[in-house]
Hints:
The complex is a heterodimer of chains A (about 600) and B (about 240).
Chain A: H1 7-10, H2 14-26, E1 36-39, H3 43-53, E2 59-62, H4 70-73, E3 93-95, H5 98-103, E4 119-121, E5 142-143, H6 170-173, H7 175-179, H8 189-203, H9 228-238, H10 283-293, E6 297-300, E7 303-310, E8 317-324, E9 330-334, E10 337-340, H11 344-352, E11 377-386, E12 406-407, E13 424-427, H12 446-456, E14 460-468, E15 476-484, E16 490-495, H13 500-519, E17 523-528, E18 567-569, H14 584-603
Chain B: H1 8-14, H2 30-40, H3 53-66, H4 81-91, H5 94-115, H6 124-134, H7 180-197, H8 200-206
Helix pairs in contact in B: 1-2, 3-4, 4-7, 5-7
Amino acid sequence: MPGPVDKTLDLELAAITDESRKLAAAIKPASGPWDVIVVGSGASGGMAAFQLATAGVKVLMLEAGRMLDHKAEYRTMEWPYASTRRGRLPGDQRAIQAAEYNFYDRPYGNNPEFAKYKKLSSYTANTFTRNWTVNEKEHPTTGTPYAWVRARVLGGKTNYWGRVAIRYGPLQFKAASRDGFDIDWPIGYEDVSPYYDKVDTLLGCSGTKEGLIQVPDGIYQRPMKMNCVETHFKKTIAKMGRSYIPGRCGVSTEGQLNNKYRSRCLGRGRCSRGCDVNANFHSPAALVYPARDTGNLTIRPYSVVSEVFLDEATGKAGGVRVIDANTKEVMDFKARVVVLGAGTLDSTRILLNSKSPKHPNGLGNSSGLMGCYLSEHHMGPRGSGFIPMRVGTEPTLDDGRPTAPYIPRFRNVTDKHPDFIRGYHFQGGGGSYEYPSLAHDMPGFGKALKSNIRKYYPAMLSIGGFGEVLPRKENRVLLDPEVKDAWGIPVLRFDFKFRDNEITMARDMADTADEMLRAAGAENIKIDPTMLPEGWSIHEIGTARMGEDPKASVTHKFCGLHDVPNVFFADAAPFVSGGTQNTTWSILAFCWRTMDYVKEQMRTGVV
Amino acid sequence: MSGPLVTRRNALKALGATAGAATILPWLSDEGLAAFADVQKAGTAPVLRVLTPAQYVTVERLVEAIIPTDERSPGARDARVADYMDLLLAEADEGLRKDWLAGLAALDAESTRRFGRSFAKLDAAQTDALLTDISAYETRKVVADAALDVPRNEQPKPQPPQVDTLLGDIGRHKGSRKSQLETFFANTKQATIHGYYTSEIGIHKELRYKGNKVLLEFVGCLTVDGKDCPYCGQKAEA
């Protein structure tokens, strides 16, 4: 009589790693030619490759990790009891915890406390994502504490992203005009909104039109309804002039007729493990595979890009230098255009490492600003409580949906807060989720404990904040002069910290969470005002900011380098300021816009 | 069910794993894997890695006292939480394991001091009295460690992290405000909660969780038959 299969132990990656090695071995610099090299295969690299390949451009995509076997690797419907460790990591692996980021010296992987682990991952590693996150021991960082989350595998972090799909709006693009801090973007919402529309249509986005300036409306598929505790909370905070709207998420709730790899959302929840029917946007199914089907896309896995090299004759970029992740063989791949989609920080690192006599501080860095103005979102302050109307009722099914509701920014929208500029939003909802996390805070033992957990289980509501981090020149990354990664590439040294505006804003987040939960009549309100470490949001932007003036910015308004005409960012490095919005949907829209520009430059022979 | 020769190969077979899986299992010893394969078969005797049979009985009594069988569902004993505890202990740091086992011994010592018998032999009222005392800290107002309650961003220096729970979490308060027995109880309780509510009994019988299945449309708070919500009054769509 066999027991239940433990899929955690059963997971077999040999086939996909073998296939990846074979693919890598088969693709050499002479295998081309290619028109464009795209570095990375996540949201940005995927969108870049899709736009170019479907337009007939020959693309070489370089992914630092392996290919993905999503059918085997996405354990979407696995029950916790299918695993020996009930979701905990295997004993030789460890995820860095919040308190450790700030306390332990960098590189984190060097700490003697972690010597006994074979793999040390960022905080996001769990039993479902552990094969995608990078090993900090191979990918060190130095400088100030920073929870830098990286995934090296086809699709990158889109394999387990948070799905929140919110547009930037006029409040971000003209933020400086509103409060006098820093500068406006060189473009406005009207420049990008058509591209957000296209992204919504191509990829599918669930949400509702609300007419709010802080979160402009998109083109939406079926939205997620609210449950009792959320409906009650919505009514409550409406009286305070605040909105609580169905979450907007990059999930196709009605299906995508344009993509044979994707299905509509089946309402099972568990999206962050990877969605095995691909209703959730993830780059491979939504963009990379369709691009490959055109015959115009070559994907080379295990390709670690160390630098963009210069063509001395033309002064343009000639291509990229690749170190094979397994064989360590060094190869130069050439193309007319280089598109960087390695993620804001890794794309920046590649260019900082692209030094030549003409570009001694890195390619495209004549301004000296490459790496500066790093920004993201600060997180941490959160609140929870029990909404009385559902205390003691039978549990409903509340996690069979891809997202929870959203409280759009309400500070400094129409009013002016006396203590800080910019603002924050909350994400979060309530009801019965598979795991009753409230149990850990419930006092007592025995029948009373058990029945109290059951009694309050349907009534929980919790929200957590995401706040704007002001873009500051002094918040930056640079190359570490000594420490190198496992492939000999200099690593990033962070010089980044939250400052007064963020800390003051975080205090206000905790206060307003408390205020709203009190207004909703919640019982047993718990407020945690603690900020999470820098980097936690995984929304890094700004290290190659766009602008009109080449002395005050790194890229022009189409995300290309001022200094070199044929190098472009597909990711969020050119973003000037990040508002409170989760970044992925903007990366996709901006990338599409940039690729339209690249195609035009290629057509007219500029590059 | 388990034969005298529980090999790695047999264990993998019992788990339905392919032989290739062995190469990705360096972190679990043969005994550990065999133990869990065995535990997965309902009703089989535990194969213990850390706990002695006597300790196992004590742990079973303790976890069942924390989450007991009641009129709605079976408790932590039937959910094999004691086996899960043994697995956690097997994979915990040595220091943590020693501390926890010392806590278990202290529980028996306290039980003997007060009632003249070991914890496993206490009757319901005695168990209740003992656990009431060692869990009283949960509702106690603590002033001494108030400095640790200052948010991280407002502390002059970050607090040193310290893994002090079997679940591998870092306790923000480092357990310093608790006695040995209180720390032991807190740790055991959290692990019991995790083990129980991730078990089939906890998820399906106790919580009656309805998800992890195809749901074509999220119904929000509305009842499935489309009537207005009886709790919050949200209107059913026409």
